[in-house]
Amino acid sequence: MSVSFGIDLSPPPPLELGYSLTLLLKGVASFVGGYGFALLFNSSARTVLAVGLLALAANEFRLMLFDAGMALAPAAFFGALAIGLVALLLDHRLNVPRIAITVPSIIIMVPWVYAFETIVFFNRGQMLEALQTLASCSFVIGAMAMGLATPRFFSKS
């Protein structure tokens, strides 16, 4: 499909928005994403709201670290760590399993663009570019897994 339709993978030019407006729009998108995924998991209204707020805070934290110059994988680690730590506090308070809080909150952090680019590059036969995007995607996903796992070492359950 990418070859048939001539999909261009070069990033579009950035919109000329102020940093605060960009941060606000990213925050709204993070909240809506986390909220929506929690709804898909049939969570209670209280849990859906908590997940939306957690996704907003953690993803904004990750994006601010990235905007400040941190590489994407470490920024994803710290964003996922924030989700894991807050989930430790919320799971008993909301009386829901920790996974019902962490999964919908972190799905929006998955590097879907890298995954898509990997498939397109492999399809086009551009092996070096495909392996580069695959490695970037893998590092970010691994960092997210480590960020979620780290709080488990400090909890009893």
Description of the structure:
- The protein has 157 residues and is mostly helical.
- It has one domain (18-154).
- It is 74% helix and 0% strand.
- It has helices at residues 2-5, 19-40, 45-67, 72-94, 99-106, 112-124, 127-149.
- α3 (45-67) packs across α5 (99-106), α4 packs antiparallel against α5 (99-106) and α6 (112-124) packs antiparallel against α7 (127-149).
- The radius of gyration is 17 Å and the shape is globular.
- It starts with a helix and ends in an 8-residue tail after the last helix.
- The mean pLDDT is 90.
The overall pLDDT, averaged over residues, is 90
Helix content: over 70%
Total DSSP E strands: 0
Low-confidence stretches: none
- H/E element sequence: HHHHHHH
Number of helices: 7
What characterizes the major β-sheet? none
Our count of domains comes out at: 1
End-to-end gap: 46 Å
Net shape: globular
Assembly form of the protein? single chain
Radius of gyration: 17 Å
Helix-strand category? mainly alpha
The share of residues in extended strands comes to under 5%
Main attributes of the structure:
0% strand; globular; mainly alpha; 157 residues
Write the layout of secondary structure elements.
Elements: H1 2-5, H2 19-40, H3 45-67, H4 72-94, H5 99-106, H6 112-124, H7 127-149
Give a short overview:
With 157 residues, the chain is mostly helical.
